[in-house]
Design goal:
The chain is an alpha+beta fold. The chain has 3 helices and 3 strands; from the N terminus they run H-E-E-H-E-H. It is globular.
Length: about 80
Amino acid sequence: MGLFGAIFGKYYNYQLRDRNGKIVYDGISNNPERRVKEHKRSGKRFSSYTVDSFNRFEDEAREKEKKSIKKHKGKYNKIKYKNS
């Protein structure tokens, strides 16, 4: 995949949720189902997930992820967006 394919493609925003519905992780993936399985194998504790949106451009997906992390402060998100 060339540079164009890395920027233009299928990007999904997804959230992992605890049993109370609280978002514990916000992420981006081109294959959310596979990514959720990876999170389970890594030991993250969650009871459900939602796929929030589909984006054609990675920067759109990153911006949505950034806003959601700032809003929900998921306990498994390592990146903490502060002043942007």
